[in-house]
Each structure stands twice: as C-alpha cells, then as structure tokens.
Amino acid sequence: MAHTITLLHGDGIGPEVTGAVVAIIESTGVKIDWDSQLMGAEAIAVHGDPLPDEVLDSIIRNKVALKGPVTTPVGKGFQSVNVRLRKALDLYANLRPVRSLPNVPSRYENIDLIIVRENTEGLYSGIEHEIIPGVVESIKIITEKASMRIARFAFEYAQAHNRGLVTAVHKANIMKLSDGLFLRCCQDVAKEYPAIKTNDRIIDNLCMQLVTNPNQFQVLVLENLYGDIVSDLAAGLVGGLGVVAGANHGEKGSVFEAVHGSAPDIAGQNKANPTALLQSAVLMLHHIGEGDAATRVYNALVNVLERGIRTRDLGGEASTSAFTNAICEAIQRG
Ligand code: NAI
User: Fold this and answer.
1) Which CATH class, in words, describes the domain spanning 1-97+238-334?
2) What's the confidence (pLDDT) of residue 84?
C-alpha cells in the first residue's frame, strides 16, 4: 500500500535536499504518493500567502509531511512560516535526536542524545509591545497544560526507546513562577514513570556540562527558547546543523524537517548536504511503520560516510547529486 505524504520543497537549498531525499526513499522500494504543496515565497506568487490553507489541509489530511527549509525575511516581510505552521497545527513537540556519525568532524564520538523542545509557547508566544519609547516588553507564557504534555511526550519517548533518564532543564531559581511551573510539571509527570530516572539542570549549568560531559544525558526536556538554543549547541557536538534531524509532532500531524535553514549562499550549486533531511526522513519512515526501510537508509548513510564520501560542508568533495547517488547505490547493494 502506498503512503500519501505532503511534500514541501521550501526554497534556497530546499528543492535540492528534498529532491535528494525523495530519490533515496524511492530507492528503498517504499511506495509513497507525494502530495507536493507550495510554501514560502513561491506560494506568495501563486496563492498570495506564504502558508496557504492548501498546505495545512494537506498535512491534516495526510498526517505526515516532509519539509525543506523556507527563507524568512529578517526584520520585515512575512512572519516566519515555520512558526505559523507549528502554531496552526499545534505541533507542540520538537524532537531532535543528536547522534554521532562516522567521518563527520566533531569534538566527541558516541553521542546519542534526545532533545525534546516545547514548541508552542514560552518567549515564542509573540506577545511583545512597547511600553514607552525605548522600553519594550516580551512576555513568556508557560502553561500547566503545555508543560504537562511536553513532559509526557519526553517520558513516553524515553519509555518507548529504552532510555533510562530524563533531565528537565529550567531556570527556576530566577524565574520562579514560569520555569518553576515547567519544572513542577516535569516532576509530576515523572512520578507516572517510576522505571525512568529523572533529574533536572539549570540551563546555564546544562550548557557547560553538555560541552564537557555530554554522555551523562539521555533525554532532555526543555521549554521553547532553551530548547531552540540547546538543540543547536548539541548539533555542534556531532558536526553541526547539516547532519541533525528534526521532527515536529502534534495531534493533527507530524512534520519532518532538517534543522538547518535555506542556505541561500550555496543554493542551486549542487553543494548542499542532504544528510539532515535524510535523517529526518529516517524518523519519518519509522513513524509510518517502515522501520526496515528506515534502517536500510540509515545504514547506507553510515556506509557512504565511512567510505569517506562527504559533501563540502563536512570537508569532502562530493556534490549533492554524487552523495545522493552513492547512498542510493548502497541501499540497492544492501
Ligand atoms: P542556514 O542554516 O541556512 O545556513 C547557515 C550556514 O550553514 C550557511 O553557511 C549554509 O551554507 C550552511 N548550511 C546550512 N545547511 C546546509 C546544508 N544542508 N549543506 C551545506 N551547508 C549548509 O542559516 P541562516 O543563513 O541563518 O538562514 C537562512 C534562511 O533560512 C533564513 O531566512 C532563515 O530564516 C531560514 N531558516 C529556515 C529554517 C526552516 O525552514 N526550518 C530553519 C532555520 C533558518
């Protein structure tokens, strides 16, 4: 049976990396009907909106989307379509598995860390105003409902993937009400999972410990802003944004996307590294019940990297298409 999945090419290097990933998935033999939709600047030209209703309807219908990066104008123009998409579909859990890959230059080996970021509130609630000229206020919203559900997501993930420790990250010593509530919710949910150990870290201490001794952690659960920053920090432990997967989950659907942006500096030059989106696609294949194909894709990626075939951002010479072809061939060889 074919799976129907929404495909959002995005812009910049988006079409190159999504094209690569679609070709690699095709080489596994898994049948997917791609429901392609426009998003970002291209969608403005056709629909007058960077995030047209067609995109949301398609994801709600199909429940799963594979998404390339979309450019967001800085300081002017339209609101981030990524933030709008997360809000519109209530994609409350951002999952980033951070795992070392062979032949990818990085400070550590054997990193295997899961980051669970609350995706809908905190300082990203977008409630900002000027009180008087020269004084602005940005409001951090933390709710019991959102904190409980992200904590539950983290513990459920830990339970399903045999992870024995969940660490709640906060700054409750200073933000006693907001981060205090987040921490209390994590501690309350932890009581429902007695087989999983739990502890907590203050955000600044966590950052220091992540760069000095990252393997002491297994699953981190964080509110929105800390999650955003820490997940990029953790990506830096395994070779950077070009290799780390991301998935956004909610009740209405799941959107699988790379962590990096649209990289306008290398767009259209056949230089982009598709690894991050490919790792997201591995998560997606597991999610749709194609675990065997997911394992074959991951093993082929590892095999190609072990043979020293790497894109330029990782210190290699391979173009996007050469790297993609090598992975397709590795899958077909088995
Ligand atoms: P970026 O991640 O696009 O690029 C940062 C640097 O990393 C650049 O030098 C780029 O060439 C390199 N890079 C990124 N991905 C790469 C890949 N797959 N292969 C090889 N090199 C890669 O970050 P930047 O420049 O801050 O953002 C560019 C645009 O992307 C902005 O408009 C931003 O808003 C948007 N963006 C979109 C995201 C999304 O759609 N999920 C996420 C992050 C940024």
Assistant:
1) alpha beta
2) 87
